[in-house]
Write a structure and sequence with these properties.
- With 386 residues, the protein is an alpha/beta fold.
- It has two domains: 13-70, no CATH class; 101-385, Rossmann fold, CATH 3.40.50.
- It is built from 14 helices and seven strands.
- The protein has helices at residues 3-8, 12-26, 66-70, 96-99, 115-126, 145-155, 169-182, 209-237, 245-249, 254-263, 288-308, 326-334, 338-345, 358-365, and strands at residues 106-110, 130-135, 159-163, 189-194, 268-273, 313-320, 376-379.
- The model is unreliable at 1-65 and 245-256 (pLDDT under 50).
- The protein binds nicotinamide-adenine-dinucleotide.
- Nicotinamide-adenine-dinucleotide (NAD) is lined by residues 110-111, 113-117, 135-137, 164-167, 195-199, 218, 222, 273, 275, 320, 322-323, 325-328.
- Residues 43-95 are annotated as: Disordered.
Length: 386
């Protein structure tokens, strides 16, 4: 049977039920909510039926183009926008570079005395945030801190340093309370970059219970305590940001309203530094307790995200691959052969530098990552890809 014969055998009713949706799809313009169609969409096929192509078939699409027939001025084919619709999306009207700007907020940085923490602290100052650095060390690195202080002074930003043991709940609680309370109302605390951590190289057969506990205490319990203290302070001060589940799910406009408050100008972002080691066993590197402690950080961030994302806090983990820092320098001193083993595993053929985590950290802390929570950002030079 030829195609024409086949079509002849089909009733008009059946044919229209097939063609009408096709014609609708062919218009390339489906009705969009206002917040999804900020830019006027021009749609050639909705400018009215083409005299030759649509002539007789226009009848078939009558139901679809009804609105265009009622008012010829509606040339886009998109239904008229209601005057009271959902508000624009959280980032509407902001330029892309502006999404990465952190002015008007204070970010707490743990492990801020040196290494990754201090590098990110500098990056935050470059992006106009005030920084409150904390660390177990009584003083920050003499080599690196002056550069951060210079940026802060040049920009008129606040940079503070406090000694803090992140495994001591009372200390963490009181320090965070003080940092939140002393932040100016023009730059409230709205971010936490948690970099404090320790590593221990040891065959799994040799660990004492205390050695395992120490690693878990600093890397896992410490991550828990700083996140908890941050969330308590932030949620207490920002009750207006809480979005009830019903509000998110029900009612026109309420979803966008809630998201505006969470992702827009007022929410907070927590970034917990985990590690690629939380995903895999590092080839040739015996550090089971460390890897376990970082895997726990991945999971706790997801759980926190589930509990706090509707209260104005996004929380994600950053998982670096090998970085040349004091931590890895100590390992390499112990086992110089690691350098070669690590390089072999890197698809980029090199280890990373602290600098290479400025971008990922700022992305996660800023509104550029407004739709990201409960996720892990793996930045490992391809180590875990093979
Ligand atoms: N260097 C790497 O290759 C690498 C790779 C993946 C993940 N990481 C993670 O990145 C983070 C930063 O590592 P780094 O290489 O900059 O290490 P680092 O040793 O240079 O810095 C860690 C900081 O944490 C602080 N600290 C340790 N225990 C603390 C405690 N109880 N309370 C408060 N501060 C404490 C230290 O004093 C130090 O300043 C760590 O969480 C580490 O596990 C590092």
């Amino acid at each position: 049977m030829t195609l024409t014969a086949a079509v002849r055998g089909i009733s008009t009713r059946t044919l229209s039920s097939f063609l009408v949706p096709l014609a609708h799809r062919g218009s390339r313009c489906s009705p969009l909510p206002r917040y999804l169609s900020q830019t006027p969409i021009t749609c050639a096929s909705a400018k009215g039926p083409h005299p030759e192509r649509h002539g007789k078939k226009a009848k078939l699409t009558e139901g679809v183009a009804e609105h265009a027939k009622e008012d010829p001025s509606k040339v886009t084919g998109v239904p008229q926008e209601p005057s009271t619709g959902p508000p624009p999306p959280p980032l509407a009207g902001r330029s892309t570079p502006d999404l990465f700007n952190l002015s008007g907020r204070t970010v707490i940085v743990t492990g801020g005395a040196r290494g990754l923490g201090l590098t990110v602290a500098q990056a935050l100052l470059e992006c106009d945030a005030n920084v409150a650095a904390v660390d177990l060390l009584p003083e920050p690195s003499e080599q690196e801190w002056p550069a951060a202080r210079e940026i802060a002074e040049a920009k008129g930003l606040k940079l503070t340093y406090d000694q803090l043991d992140i495994t001591n709940q009372e200390q963490v609680k009181s320090t965070f309370h003080r940092l939140f309370s002393s932040a100016s109302s023009s730059a409230p605390v709205r971010g936490l970059f948690h970099a404090a951590g320790i590593q221990l190289l040891m065959p799994a057969l040799n660990y004492t219970a205390d050695q395992v506990r120490k690693i878990i205490d600093v890397n896992t319990t410490g991550s828990f305590l700083v996140s908890q203290a941050f969330a308590r302070e932030f949620i207490e001060r920002n009750k207006h940001l809480a979005v009830g589940a019903a509000e998110v799910l029900d009612g026109p406009g309420s979803h966008a309203d809630g998201m505006n408050r969470l992702a827009g100008d007022q929410g907070a972002s927590i970034v917990l530094t985990a590690s690629m080691s939380g995903h895999v066993a590092n080839y040739g590197l015996e550090c089971a307790a460390y890897n376990a402690s970082k895997a726990a950080v991945h999971t706790m961030a997801k759980c926190f995200a589930m509990e706090w994302s509707k209260k104005g806090i996004r929380i994600n983990t950053l998982s670096p691959g090998y970085i040349r820092t004091a931590m890895t320098a100590a390992l390499l001193e112990q086992r110089p052969d690691f350098n070669e083993t690590w390089l072999k595993g890197s698809l980029l053929g090199r280890l990373s530098t602290q600098d290479e985590f400025r971008g990922p950290a700022i992305y996660l802390l800023s509104d550029a990552s407004s739709f990201m929570t409960g996720a892990d950002l793996l930045v490992d030079g391809g180590h875990t890809a093979t």
